[in-house]
């Protein structure tokens, strides 16, 4: 694997990949860790589940907005200063979340937490492009995303375990600790950007428009982030499906969620194995088709039992994350410069799509499982059709296969 960035004196190559993975995991860590506590939080504050879900939905919305700020600024000021600023805000807001006395305070501080944490997500992908080239970048993205996906597998289990000896407040203290660890890693990180943008702040932010107007980048961003609609719809509704729908305890819910999250861990590495034998276009086609077929299984069989539901949604999970390494690499390849802006737009679009999924499923009280099935069918088919069209367009740089 070719390493083209400046040497990391303190982190080393493996330490840098670990830091990138931790920074990339801020979304699942900040959401999945407290998923088992959502029903209990609604009871604690004496409010409806919809109001507590705002702490999840608004987190994603402001996380998306934050990436649009931090990414371009990292092109101008460097990756490290932006990470230090964002992570500091994340730690402070996490502490404040742990100390709130009503749900509206929690919503406010979750917004601040989202803005701070978005710096980590925006800069992480930019660092990958700073340091690695072409196919090596694709392999690193797969490794990082597999490491990142450990957090959805472990976070609900850890969150449920924490709830056995602490309250939901302890979960936010844990998030503050994760922020401090990331901040320590950032202080040890050596800057990787080779050339900084020389315009003023406003001009730097305007580079987002330059990247967005690239038809190859923007069209691919829509296709490869659409899978977040069905993925985040499942994440947002999973605790209600397993706990309220199937009557499971928070601990049992975490085990079923972890079973499904195995697919999140295996998907990117499965892509690496498949890409050594098959064309990337065919792999992507298969991923999108798998999502749709999984949705059919969920719709017709998901209500039988919790294990049947978990096994029915598992193929969609694998298909969605298996398409991410080539999708992310292909999007980055559309831009020679403005890496931070491109990374921001990828993260922002993905988060917006996820928020749309959570909003759609919130309108499906009493029929969550069929709604999840329909969303997966629609997402898989739409992605498949759009990918078939875009892969033939001259303005989209093709994936370079080496098989």
Automatic annotation (TrEMBL):
<keyword id="KW-0472">Membrane</keyword>
<feature type="transmembrane region" description="Helical">
    <location>
        <begin position="217"/>
        <end position="241"/>
    </location>
</feature>
<comment type="similarity">
    <text>Belongs to the major facilitator superfamily. Bcr/CmlA family.</text>
</comment>
<keyword id="KW-1003">Cell membrane</keyword>
<dbReference type="InterPro" id="IPR036259">
    <property type="entry name" value="MFS_trans_sf"/>
</dbReference>
<dbReference type="GO" id="GO:0042910">
    <property type="term" value="F:xenobiotic transmembrane transporter activity"/>
</dbReference>
<feature type="transmembrane region" description="Helical">
    <location>
        <begin position="140"/>
        <end position="165"/>
    </location>
</feature>
<dbReference type="Pfam" id="PF07690">
    <property type="entry name" value="MFS_1"/>
</dbReference>
<feature type="transmembrane region" description="Helical">
    <location>
        <begin position="107"/>
        <end position="128"/>
    </location>
</feature>
<keyword id="KW-0812">Transmembrane</keyword>
<dbReference type="GO" id="GO:0005886">
    <property type="term" value="C:plasma membrane"/>
</dbReference>
<dbReference type="InterPro" id="IPR020846">
    <property type="entry name" value="MFS_dom"/>
</dbReference>
<keyword id="KW-1133">Transmembrane helix</keyword>
<protein>
    <submittedName>
        <fullName>MFS transporter</fullName>
    </submittedName>
</protein>
<feature type="transmembrane region" description="Helical">
    <location>
        <begin position="171"/>
        <end position="189"/>
    </location>
</feature>
<dbReference type="InterPro" id="IPR011701">
    <property type="entry name" value="MFS"/>
</dbReference>
<dbReference type="GO" id="GO:1990961">
    <property type="term" value="P:xenobiotic detoxification by transmembrane export across the plasma membrane"/>
</dbReference>
<feature type="transmembrane region" description="Helical">
    <location>
        <begin position="369"/>
        <end position="390"/>
    </location>
</feature>
<feature type="transmembrane region" description="Helical">
    <location>
        <begin position="283"/>
        <end position="301"/>
    </location>
</feature>
<feature type="transmembrane region" description="Helical">
    <location>
        <begin position="344"/>
        <end position="363"/>
    </location>
</feature>
<feature type="transmembrane region" description="Helical">
    <location>
        <begin position="253"/>
        <end position="271"/>
    </location>
</feature>
<feature type="transmembrane region" description="Helical">
    <location>
        <begin position="82"/>
        <end position="101"/>
    </location>
</feature>
<feature type="transmembrane region" description="Helical">
    <location>
        <begin position="12"/>
        <end position="31"/>
    </location>
</feature>
<dbReference type="InterPro" id="IPR004812">
    <property type="entry name" value="Efflux_drug-R_Bcr/CmlA"/>
</dbReference>
<keyword id="KW-0813">Transport</keyword>
<feature type="transmembrane region" description="Helical">
    <location>
        <begin position="51"/>
        <end position="70"/>
    </location>
</feature>
<feature type="domain" description="Major facilitator superfamily (MFS) profile">
    <location>
        <begin position="16"/>
        <end position="403"/>
    </location>
</feature>
């Amino acid at each position: 694997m070719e390493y083209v960035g400046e040497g990391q004196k303190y982190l080393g190559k493996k330490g840098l990949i670990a830091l990138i993975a931790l920074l990339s995991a801020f979304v699942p860590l900040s959401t999945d860790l407290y998923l088992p506590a959502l029903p209990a939080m609604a009871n604690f504050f004496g409010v409806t589940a919809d109001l507590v879900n705002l702490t999840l939905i608004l987190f994603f919305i402001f996380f998306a907005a934050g990436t649009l700020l931090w990414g371009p600024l990292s092109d101008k000021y460097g990756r490290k200063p932006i990470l230090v600023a964002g992570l500091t805000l994340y730690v402070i807001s996490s502490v404040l979340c742990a100390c709130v006395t009503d749900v509206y305070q929690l919503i406010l501080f979750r917004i601040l937490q989202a803005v701070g944490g978005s710096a980590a997500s925006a800069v992480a992908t930019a660092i990958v492009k700073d340091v690695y080239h072409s196919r090596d970048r694709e392999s690193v993205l797969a490794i990082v995303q597999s490491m990142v996906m450990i957090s959805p597998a472990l976070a609900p289990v850890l969150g449920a375990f924490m709830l056995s000896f602490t309250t939901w407040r302890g979960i936010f203290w844990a998030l503050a600790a994760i922020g401090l660890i990331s901040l320590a890693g950032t202080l040890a990180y050596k800057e990787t950007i080779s050339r900084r943008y020389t315009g003023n702040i406003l001009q730097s932010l305007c580079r987002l428009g330059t990247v967005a107007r690239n038809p190859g980048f923007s069209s691919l961003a829509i296709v490869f982030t659409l899978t977040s609609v069905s993925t985040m719809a499942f994440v947002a509704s999973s605790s209600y499906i397993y706990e309220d729908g199937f009557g499971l305890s928070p601990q049992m819910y975490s085990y079923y969620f972890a079973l499904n999250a195995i697919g999140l861990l295996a998907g990117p590495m499965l892509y690496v194995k498949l890409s050594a034998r098959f064309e990337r276009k065919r792999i992507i086609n298969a991923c999108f088709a798998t999502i749709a077929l999984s949705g059919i299984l969920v719709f017709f069989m998901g209500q039988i039992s919790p294990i049947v539901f978990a096994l029915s949604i598992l193929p969609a999970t694998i298909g969605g994350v298996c398409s991410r390494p080539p999708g992310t690499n292909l999007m980055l390849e559309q831009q020679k410069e403005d890496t931070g802006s491109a990374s921001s737009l990828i993260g922002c679009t993905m988060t917006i799509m996820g928020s749309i999924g959570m909003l759609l499923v919130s309108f499906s009280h009493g029929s969550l499982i069929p709604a999840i099935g329909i969303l997966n069918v629609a997402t898989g088919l739409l992605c498949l059709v759009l990918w078939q069209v875009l892969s033939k367009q001259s303005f989209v740089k093709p994936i370079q296969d080496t098989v």
